[in-house]
């Protein structure tokens, strides 16, 4: 049975799209050829493209997890029926391309780094926020019967070399003693016996919260819930111009102008740089690639020895994230090209295959059923922001989870809904200031990224 999520796309998918150089995104593109789209089944109905000018109360730009969660919580908590505008098919961006790993995090930084940056009180408050966020995420799936194959069991953060163990041990102590969170260490023998036979692993930190989900089924579930609650969701309606006139935001789409009193931006790394000058270069889009093998044979399953299907990541800065899917295929992802133009260069696929083979020698050379990549919204200080644009009244954004947005985007949407509705939210460093800007360094960022990748690779692979 063909379970591909089909849509009537008028434009083939462009695998080389690059938000740093593109002038526009959409309309009409097909989805990326991901495992998730290949196995999601028929997506729920949407409201079709914008076809005429319209006046709305709240417009949400972007229909990934963040935009849809914003619409869900605007309706649920504030009685506001938002209008969601999406450049291509619903959840065209990261939300149908990720690794499906829900982790107890909101950005790329660890708890010890939170303390260093903001002090203990703020770090504790941020920890409470992500714990609450995980409850919200689980609750959304449970209460709305979102059938996204959740596999609970915690997150295993796996030391890919012996010298990575002490810092995992100290993070585990910190989580327990300072945050009262029950993480624990496993040595290599226990990890191999009870979790995964990862050949390069030296042990792991286990965090009790970690759920693997089907990325596209989660997004399509959010779409169904948002529309059931009264939101309208318009695919193939990219915002291609944005002006504020007499306190009203005029959002130009190919089918008509959407005039909105308030705007919530949820475009992650996918918006071209010209969406609005106030948002330009607040993010550094980083490409990540992902592969899914054919179904493993019983012998391969025995060799891989994965007994927990919840999220696994390793301690490389250029980390691998991997898991065994419900149908016994292995999925693994890591860093990819720096530019869209270089995305299809076979060296990146080969590097990922090699990463998989070092962990699982039995899978060297295995056939792949799926291979794709996508842009991750990394902020310049590695943490997201959910906040307003003070000089653009009525405009807000939730951006910058840096590869950790599957879980936290649910809460980010709720927080953005509160801001849009004029409700005060917690005083946290990810809410009370804006995403940092790179200023004059912008043209050199990719050069810097190239240098950093070389450095990180050297450090990651050094014993
Ligand atoms: C390969 C890969 C693997 C990842 N793995 C994980 C993981 O395992 N765990 C984890 O927590 N996170 C992971 N992430 C990150 C995670 O997917 C994101 O944090 C999350 O999906 C963000 O959701 P979002 O709604 O903010 O953004 P998106 O899902 O990217 O949605 C943004 C939407 O905005 C639309 N858009 C952009 N510009 C416009 C415009 N001008 N007009 C209208 N619409 C517009 C885009 O088309 C897109 O659909 C991964 C990301 C990638 C790319």
UniProtKB/TrEMBL annotation:
InterPro entries reported for this sequence: FAD-dep_OxRdtase, FAD/NAD-bd_sf
Taxonomically, which superkingdom? Bacteria
Where is each FAD dependent oxidoreductase domain found? Answer: 57-419
Query: How is this protein annotated for GO cellular component?
Result: cytoplasm
GO MF terms here are:
dioxygenase activity
Q: Where are the transmembrane segments?
A: none
The alphabetized UniProt keywords are: Dioxygenase, Oxidoreductase
* SUPFAM superfamilies in alphabetical order: FAD/NAD(P)-binding domain
Q: What PANTHER family is this protein classified in?
A: FAD DEPENDENT OXIDOREDUCTASE DOMAIN-CONTAINING PROTEIN, SARCOSINE DEHYDROGENASE-RELATED
Q: What is this protein called?
A: Taurine dioxygenase/taurine dehydrogenase large subunit
Record organism = Paracoccus seriniphilus
């Amino acid at each position: 049975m063909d379970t591909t999520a089909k849509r009537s796309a008028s434009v083939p998918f462009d695998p080389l799209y690059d938000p740093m150089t593109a002038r526009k995104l959409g309309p009409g593109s097909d989805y990326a050829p991901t495992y998730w789209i290949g196995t999601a089944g028929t997506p729920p109905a949407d409201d079709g493209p914008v076809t005429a000018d319209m006046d709305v109360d709240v417009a949400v730009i972007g229909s990934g997890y963040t935009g849809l969660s914003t619409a869900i919580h605007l309706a649920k908590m504030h009685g506001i029926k938002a209008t969601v505008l999406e450049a291509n098919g619903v959840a065209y961006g990261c939300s149908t391309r990720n690794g499906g790993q829900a982790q107890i995090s909101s950005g790329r930084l660890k708890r010890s780094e939170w303390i260093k940056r903001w002090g203990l009180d703020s770090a504790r408050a941020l920890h409470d926020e992500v714990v609450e966020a995980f409850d919200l995420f689980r609750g959304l799936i449970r209460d709305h019967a979102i059938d996204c194959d959740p596999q609970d069991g915690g997150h295993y953060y796996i030391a890919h070399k012996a010298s990575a163990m002490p810092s995992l041990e100290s993070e585990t102590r910190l989580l327990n003693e300072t945050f009262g969170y029950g993480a624990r260490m496993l040595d290599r023998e226990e990890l191999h016996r009870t979790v995964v036979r990862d050949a390069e692993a030296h042990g792991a930190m286990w965090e009790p919260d970690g759920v693997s989900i089907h990325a596209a089924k989660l997004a399509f579930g959010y779409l169904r819930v948002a529309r059931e609650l009264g939101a309208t969701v318009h695919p193939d309606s990219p915002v291609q111009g944005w002006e504020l006139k007499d306190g009203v935001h005029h959002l130009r789409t190919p089918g008509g102008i959407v005039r909105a009193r308030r705007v919530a931006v949820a475009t992650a790394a996918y918006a071209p740089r010209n969406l609005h000058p106030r948002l330009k270069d607040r993010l550094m889009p980083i490409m990540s690639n992902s592969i899914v093998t054919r179904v493993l044979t019983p012998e391969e399953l025995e060799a891989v020895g994965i007994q927990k299907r919840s999220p696994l990541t390793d301690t490389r800065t250029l980390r691998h994230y991997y898991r065994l899917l419900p149908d016994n295929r292995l999925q693994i992802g890591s860093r990819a090209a720096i530019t869209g133009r270089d995305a299809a260069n076979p060296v990146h696929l080969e590097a990922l295959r090699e990463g998989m083979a070092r962990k699982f020698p039995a899978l060297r050379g295995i056939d792949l059923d799926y291979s794709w990549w996508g842009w991750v919204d990394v902020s310049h200080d590695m943490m997201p922001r959910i906040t307003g644009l003070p000089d653009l009244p009525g405009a807000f954004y939730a951006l910058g989870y840096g590869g950790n947005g599957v879980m936290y985007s649910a809460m980010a949407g709720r927080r953005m809904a509160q801001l849009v509705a004029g409700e005060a939210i917690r005083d946290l460093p990810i809410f009370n200031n804006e995403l940092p800007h790179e200023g004059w360094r912008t043209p050199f960022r990719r050069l810097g990224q190239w240098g950093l990748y070389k450095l990180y690779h050297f450090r990651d692979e050094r014993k």
